[in-house]
Amino acid sequence: MNQSDRRAPDRAPEAAGARPGTGGGPPRDGRTERGRRTREKIADAMLSLLDDGETQFPADRVAERAGVSRRLVFHHFADMGQLQDTAIARRLDQLAARIGPLPAEGPRETRVAALVEQRARILEWITPARLTMMRLENPTERVEFATRQVLDFARRRLAEVFAEELDRLTGDRREDLLNGLDAVTTWGAWYHWRSSGLDQAAARRTMEATVHALLAVTDRASAPDPAGPAAGDGPSSPPAGAPTPLPAR
């Protein structure tokens, strides 16, 4: 993991230790800040191992990657499970930083293109970590909960971006369309296309074409029924072959 890829401090300078009246200078005791940086370095070391495809994270290996002692790892983390939770939370912070706003109005082509560009970029980036997480023997409840949160957020984003089309349907038909959009824009579909031999550009085009095909269902739902009479038309003619009614006497 690139050590330059660090999030901003969680707290404002004053809350992190600066004292009023010091002119914003360094805190009197820098141990808290040094401890925070060391914790991030150790968490980033675990993420680096995860990105390399490793599924076991012994303390000695993490310490070596972080350039610290094994004792220091357990000084900052009660056990490896706590370190794993911290590392996953850090990866989710990095993921959130890559998710920008998407248009919820405007031409469909624009909205689909923006969504697919963002999804393709993020799904490709998380693939190494996702593959490793699938091989973890005992993922913690926090990791499973965080994963569920990400998936739920992605589904809500779809509902916002394509609200115009989804609102043309009701009940099960609306839910079915949202389920389909969710299925083809999340990691499972992306990994299927990439592992089948498609390069990133081809996989992205496939996702875009599939999203457009699914949304086209709503165009048919909103179009007038060509078999029905137009407004203001008179009575329809009897079907071919039907008996001609007798004139009234």
Question: Could you characterize what this model shows?
Answer:
It is built from eleven helices and no strands. The longest helix is centred in the middle third of the chain and has 28 residues, at 108-135. It starts with 12 loop residues before the first helix and ends in a 27-residue tail after the last helix. The protein has 249 residues and is mainly alpha-helical. 63% of the residues lie in helices and 0% in strands. Helix 2 (31-51) packs across helix 5 (80-97) and helix 10 (187-195) crosses helix 11 (200-222). The protein is elongated.
Radius of gyration, in Å, reads: 28 Å
Order of H and E elements: HHHHHHHHHHH
How much of the sequence lies in strands comes to under 5%
User: What structural category arises from helix and sheet content?
Assistant: mainly alpha
Low-confidence stretches: 1-25, 230-234
Mean pLDDT: 81
Tally of contiguous helical segments: 11
> Major β-sheet, in short?
none
Number of strands: 0
The span between the termini is: 94 Å
Features:
249 residues, 63% helix
What topology does this entry show?
Elements: H1 13-16, H2 31-51, H3 59-66, H4 70-76, H5 80-97, H6 108-135, H7 141-161, H8 163-166, H9 171-184, H10 187-195, H11 200-222
Brief digest:
The chain has 249 residues and is mainly alpha-helical.
